[in-house]
Prior knowledge:
Structural class of chain A: mainly alpha
Distance between the termini of chain A: 62 Å
CATH superfamily of the largest domain in chain A: NADH-ubiquinone/plastoquinone oxidoreductase chain 6, subunit NuoJ
Structural class of chain B: mainly alpha
Shape of chain B: flat
Radius of gyration of chain A: 21 Å
Low-confidence stretches of chain A: none
Radius of gyration of chain B: 25 Å
Largest interface: B-C, 71 and 85 residues
Helix content of chain B: 55-70%
Number of helices of chain A: 7
Helix content of chain A: over 70%
Strand content of chain B: under 5%
Largest sheet of chain A: none
Oligomer: heterotrimer
CATH class of the largest domain in chain A: Mainly Alpha
Number of helices of chain B: 3
Order of helices and strands of chain A: HHHHHHH
Order of helices and strands of chain B: HHH
Mean pLDDT of chain A: 83
CATH topology of the largest domain in chain A: Four Helix Bundle (Hemerythrin (Met), subunit A)
Mean pLDDT of chain B: 78
Strand content of chain A: under 5%
Shape of chain A: globular
Amino acid sequence: MTPxxxxxxxxxxMAVAGAVSLILQRHPIHSALSLIVVMVSLAGxxxxxxxxxxxxxxxxxxxxxxxxxxxxxxxLLNAGEEERTNVSxxxxxxxxxxxxxxxxEVAYWIARATxxxxxxxxxLVSTRDLSTLLFREYVFPFELTSFLILIALLGALVLARRxxxx
Amino acid sequence: MTGNDLQxxxxxxxxxxxxxxxxxxxxxxxxxxxxxxxxxxxxQPYECGITPTGDAREPFSVKFYLVAMVxxxxxxxxxxxxxxxxxxxxxxxFGFVEMILYIGILLVGYFYLWKKGALDWNRPAxxxxxxx
Amino acid sequence: xxxxxxxxxxxVVALPKIVVLLLVLLTSLAYLTWFERKVVAxxxxxxxPYRVGPHGLLQPLADGxxxxxxxxxxxxxxxxxxxxxxxxxSLSLAITSIAVIPFGPKEFTVFGQPTPLAITNLNIGLLxxxxxxxxxxxxxxxxGWSSNSKYPLLxxxxxxxxxxxxxxxxxxxxxxxxxxxxxxxxxxxxxxQQGFHWGFLPRWNLIGGPMPQLLGFLLFFTxxxxxxxxxxxxxxxxxxxxxxxxxxxxASFKFAMFFMAExxxxxxxxxxxxxxxxxxxxSPFPQTAAFAWAHYIPAAAFALAGLALIFYGIxxxxxxxxxxxxxxGVVLGALALLxxxxxxTEFVQGPFWFLLKxxxxxxxxxxxxxxxxxxxxxxxxxxxxxxxxxxxxLNVVITSxxxxxxxx
Lengths: 166, 132, 408
């Protein structure tokens, strides 16, 4: 077992465990923390694939910015522990088998596709290539993102506006 | 180790592991060493000697939410500046115009935020339009 | 041993380096508190720590032991897991960020393996550093939230909002340097600042290149002081209104851990300022024959400091001081003798200038704290969003314009 595979297994296990804990945790803050674990392990997985720039951006934007907003919102709403309801009969008899079937199906297709998957990168993807691609070939989408951000800014303002009315 | 392969991240991982181990040991030590004589008064939250009133986790101003939201958006912008600056010497005027357009569009949003008072901390979150 | 080293470079080469760096870092953290108390005391015409050891030199040790044996009080109603997680996160992230900092140009060999004077030399070292610091917000926010007390909650919220606001200006103020260097690799950024104006003025990013980054540096340092929650931006610890901010409910070593994290980020920021704007390990003197004497500055500085310590130490007040200070002086003198040796002189140059600049920035940190009054919270947020952010965008535009215009 090469070190890469070992690190991959650990990161994959962390990501899955974080995702499961995200659903099972009762307190929203604990769920948010689990989501941060997922984000960071994803960044590690990107790094294993050789995409170091994307890995760093994943942590800076998702780990350091978006999750801060999540934590703020949870604190803002003062969301307490969620109450557990009894699992309905419908969910138990239809939902669980359907979920298991879906998982099996996904596993089957992934298993079939493994032969086509590239091995983990030995070389890191050059940030220069990535930048050239972004700023030469995909200039138009890049400029469009600025409009997207502009619209999101306005959206944030409109959402925050509610406070006045009460 | 030239920094061109995945190998160069291994020391960082090792460093992180050691740092975490060290912090973990310190947290453990702080709860193991040292005496403890707990009492209800001692474990009360600190409120300048007055008996604590109410729950600490109260809802707070929507301003913090707005700041975090706007931070995400500008953080994305800052992240786009990084790869651009990386190859700027090859892009030259093309890159310059490209980024002026990009920043210009965002500055419109920035000044709108400013005019609406979203950047002022002691005013209510967003000023109402006078016309309405 | 050499064969084993070539097969397992990480275990044999990286591990000792990391252990040594962490030990040095922890010691410097401890003595940085002493340094800060001394400097602030002298700014305010006081003596500062004086009793524990000569000139209070053993004070950090005494503080450490005291913290360890204090009663560890956990507030009622605290979220135990998060309450323990917050100092852990703060400290481990803060001391990890030093790993990407290069301290000198020379490679040295450990068991026959050449290795740089840094834990690791990454292509995107700068981004990795920002990634690690961006996670530091959680330590503050979670500490404030988990204590289940009003002051920590307010302090935690305020300082996390402050940290994210100034992180923007911090990331944008660095773009000017990347524009000039065209790389995220910290060693390469230092190497891009080689050379001299008119033969004597170093072409460091602060004053060199197509567009001197003076504005960029001021923005960077201001934002960095705010990012590390230091005075005059230490709103979280505004004693007059928030008691101690997010760590009000922390006691014992967990309380000390927040301080270790703060001082550690101070060191990282000073290293970063040195690398990005002040030429990193580059000497301020040209490498010409006329300046050959500059090579002996490290040795001379150590020798002078050693002599001063010996002469001052033998007349010190206490018996203990009369032994310890001269011994320290002799150690410094021995180091000075070592630095004159041919191979060592070249090797010492880089780290010497680097650490000298870092110590200078640490002094500025303390100086600012001793001089400037604290800002009000609305002023603080306004300052970040309405002044630093537009100025840093302006800096990016001007720098890129200057590069396009001067490039042939």
